[in-house]
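[Meeting: bench + compute handoff]

Bench side (C.D.) handed over the final construct sequence. Compute side (W.E.) agreed to return the predicted structure before the next meeting so the bench team could plan truncations. Sequence as handed over:
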Amino acid sequence: MVVASGISVFEYLVGSWQMSQTVVSNLCGAKGKALDLAVREARVQALREAQLLLVSYMGLSLQIPDMFPQQGRSGRAIIVDALLADPNANANSLAEQLPELLSQLAARFANDGLPEVIAPAISELGLRTLQRANRSLLQPGFRSILAALDTLTTNRQIAAAIPHMPTFDPEECNGRRMQTGTALGPFMALSGFPAGDESITKVYYSDAPQRSHQDRESLHTSLRTTVQFLHSALFEIVNRLIRSGADERTLVIQLSLRTLATNALRSGMQVDFTKVVDDGFADNLAFVWMRLSEPFTNDARLTRLARVDPDWVTMRALRSVADGGLNDDQSHISTYWRELTRIDADKEQIDAYLEQRLRDQMSSDGGFIPDCFFTTAVALHLGLVSTIARYIDMMKQIGRFKNEIERVRNSPGTLTPAQRANLPLVMQRWESQLQDMKREKCAMDAQMLDPRRLICAMVFYRFVICFLLRQVDAQGVFPQQAFTMPAENGDVNAAEKWRMLPEFLIEDATEFVVFVTTYAPDVLTDSTAQVGDDGLRMFDDILPLFIVTFLARPKLIRNPYLKAKLVDILHYLTYRDPREDDDYVDTLGGNIPGNIRLHPSIQQFQANLDNNTLARAYLVPALVRFYVDIEQTGSSSQFYEKFQTRYYIARTLRALWARAPRYVEVTRRFFMQSGLGTSEATTTGSTRRDQRIIEEFVTRLMTDTTYLLDESLSKLAVIRDIEKRQPTAEAPAAE
């Protein structure tokens, strides 16, 4: 074979294939009608055989690049250039003929190393994605990248080959390297978050803090539309891989679980982002899995909830593929799931339970639904929920920084002469830093407050909460039948699987609802988020039941902070206008806004509580009981942490009492029945326990009142000292 100088062998083969393809098209078209049918078919057959030979050599040159002399453009570059080119720009171009070439390559190497044939092209496409012009959502290049990957995965044989590529999930990649060293990593790293694309804050939101709210919303809408396109494209690509076969589905799930396991540090307090994937990657992965879970989470009656095995961790996450599980060869997946904090079990109990279950030699392959459920749950745990925590922390930092600037600006007399001399320069630098922080917040607002993202997560957490309720339902059949409140002590054997569930399932559901309630309450009552038949709507039915159940049966959850989060939700959604509450603790210095307006969701939630039979019976005794129980949290700062929770309980009780006399009657009956020697299931079920709770409630109330009064009196001396040190208005005149 003689190849012209400067032209690679692959380019020569492609050119020859294109010429043969053009001749075949002519023979099969109008130009070939004049030929005898037998002659035409013979010529087409000969050309097809020639094409098969050309395609074979093309595939071999991709599998073994050094098989031929290396000159000119590589085969992987030629294919990627054609994928990125406009197929309508030139007739008979490789871009136009590429789908046919890919089909022939896939058919020829289907059982002869197709993963190795297609891997170079996908690796090259990934490298192009990492280029600055292609990785920014503000530039059009990323759309061509996604369209190219879409073209490849549209071919079912290629889609089935991708999970088997050596670069799909290489063993040496973990942590941060998952977004650059794996085949799909660069595409998943495309991001609308400022950490993934600095031009979003420096260019797109450069003057956002000075713009009006309407202008900022317009900017948000445009960026959200782009991110929606990104999410949809990534979902279609991953969905094709999963649907290409059972083995391929397992490999995709393994990649996702291993990626999440090796990036577990994302959920920590102090995150080193040089070691974990960024927010954009984690968000994309979580959203793809949320979309994959929609067929069963969007079900109005949740008919497939029973297919989710609460023992999935031991049945799937801790077992190897050979034993019917999903664990990887390096055991990253099993290590992560084994070390997770459980709802109500210590390490010794966890180890004993897991070892026993693993010895049972049982496997539970409930199909895709349980795998998808737990993968989505942990993807949201390390993605959206972790980002929410940092988003809230960022807003607190901005608030503290603004207050510090105002304090220094309004109190120059407290500074030394040298500090006052440098004050203008320092204030200028601080104001610049504050503007940078505000630009970053605007960019984060576009993602974190996106109704589409929050509604999708709300639908999924509806399924999570119903799954949790099913595990503690006295009959174990919820939601197919009405929920039955479990007994105070419960069935120890039946509750074993419950105690071993990962704690983050409850934690994330509560954290997410608290976030939405505080920053995006419109999502709570959105018709799309309220998916479900009567009795199974998230905001109207499921959320009140969730809160009441786990407050009324506190032994179900060991962590007091999780129960405190339930009180937070109650407080926010039963919030009472301070102008109507004579016991409101005024933290605004008497400056309660006159135009305060409560969100409609508050009134709706209170109506939901009124209509909920279990809430009417259990809620008030549960709040009184938790007022006592929060005394001991196990933390070194437990003495101070209890005050906010107790304040929220007091505010919630006052709101309930003011709303309906029935809550006053329930409270009176609870305090009276223990004195009469009777007890109901709506309390603790034991007269002795009820009496102890009431006695401790009164004791805690008096103790807290005494302590807070002493603290208030002690602060009077501090206030007086500050007033003495502040310069008086007459001081300058006296000088």
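W.E. noted at the follow-up: Confidence is low (pLDDT under 50) at residues 729-735. C.D. will use this when planning the next construct.
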